[in-house]
Design brief:
- The protein has 80 residues and is an alpha+beta fold.
- It has one domain (2-8, 16-79).
- 25% of the residues lie in helices and 35% in strands.
- The chain contains two helices and five strands.
- The chain has a three-stranded antiparallel β-sheet, with helices on one face. Strands 1-2 form a two-stranded antiparallel ribbon.
- InterPro entries: HP0268.
Amino acid sequence: MKLKLARTTLKAKPKSVELSKIEEMLPQKSIFYFDRDNSHKDLKALIEHFEEEGYNVYMREVKYGLNEDEYIYEVHIVQQ
């Protein structure tokens, strides 16, 4: 499954990352920011995958502007 990481600037295109790459990055960091272009279905699949692996996963929307489409998803993946 591919997910799009949050954009670094407003005009940049989001970079894609595979689920396996996120698993590799977990020992170094536990907070990931995903772009609003990701489907809610894919984010739910991400959460379910890591919960099956024994992690606690928390997701929330973070608004960075006043417009409706100015938000990103913040996902915390924490070992139990």
